[in-house]
Recover the amino acids of this structure.
């Protein structure tokens, strides 16, 4: 590195200018390395056989490590900063900083935990508390999910790691419960409900899995059933569920 700086100093005619130019060159090289490493990580995460979730937290951690090393290299080689003393000082100051950034550290650790353990990953349909939706991303601070209304909900990682996470069926799957009369012919009703559900769903989206009607419980009010089907457009799941409910209502009231 001294030879590199001396060469630049001979060209520019100044030691300070040489250090600035050397620092710029190092940052450019670090930026290129960071770009290629991030690109490689994203490529690995998109592969079907990868074991790493497609969460941006891994990309951000890798980028932070690379730039941290680059900054240390510039400070040490270009500006003669004693990195050992600086790291020791940061270690002492880190205790005080950790007290002031407890929530941030909790979210960071929670994000790493839920990502490495694959508790939550992009594409999962989950429920945390009263929030339901499909996970879009897990960052170093929070997870973003999109619910059936198209709203984006931001949930801190610490909340996910401390609370129960319910993994729901895929968002394309539609489930419509209903209550049949105890005196109804269940086989006939199942056929009619399935037919109505299929016709209604096709008005909104294509059908991936044909409607299936099951009866799950006998109560004093009647027999509890539900119609299940899967469509090809998750955005239409709520309208399809609403339309099927309205369509089968006259039938199940009989």
């Amino acid at each position: 590195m001294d030879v590199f700086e001396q060469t630049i100093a001979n060209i520019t005619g100044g030691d300070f200018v040489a250090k600035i130019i050397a620092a710029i060159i190092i940052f450019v090289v670090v930026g290129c390395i960071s770009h290629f490493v991030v690109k490689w990580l994203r490529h690995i995460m998109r592969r079907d056989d990868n074991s790493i979730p497609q969460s941006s937290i891994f990309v951000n951690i890798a980028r932070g490590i690379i730039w941290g090393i680059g900054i240390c290299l510039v400070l040490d080689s270009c500006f003669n900063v004693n990195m050992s003393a600086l790291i020791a000082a940061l270690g002492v100051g880190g205790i005080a900083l950790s007290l002031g950034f407890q929530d941030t550290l909790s979210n960071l650790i929670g994000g790493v935990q839920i990502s490495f353990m694959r508790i939550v990953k992009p594409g999962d349909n989950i429920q945390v508390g009263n929030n339901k939706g499909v996970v879009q991303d897990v960052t170093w601070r929070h997870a973003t999910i999109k619910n059936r209304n198209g709203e984006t909900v931001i949930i801190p990682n610490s909340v996910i790691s401390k609370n129960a996470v319910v993994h729901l069926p895929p968002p394309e799957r539609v489930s419509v419960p209903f209550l049949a009369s105890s005196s109804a012919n269940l086989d006939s009703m199942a056929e009619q409900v399935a037919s109505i559900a299929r016709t209604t769903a096709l008005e909104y989206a294509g059908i991936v899995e044909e409607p299936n009607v099951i009866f799950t419980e006998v109560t004093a009010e009647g027999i509890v059933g539900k119609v299940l089907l899967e469509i090809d457009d998750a955005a239409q799941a709520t309208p399809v569920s609403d339309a099927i409910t309205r369509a089968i209502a006259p039938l199940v009231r009989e």
Q: What stands out?
A: The mean pLDDT is 81. The chain is about 55% helix and 20% strand.
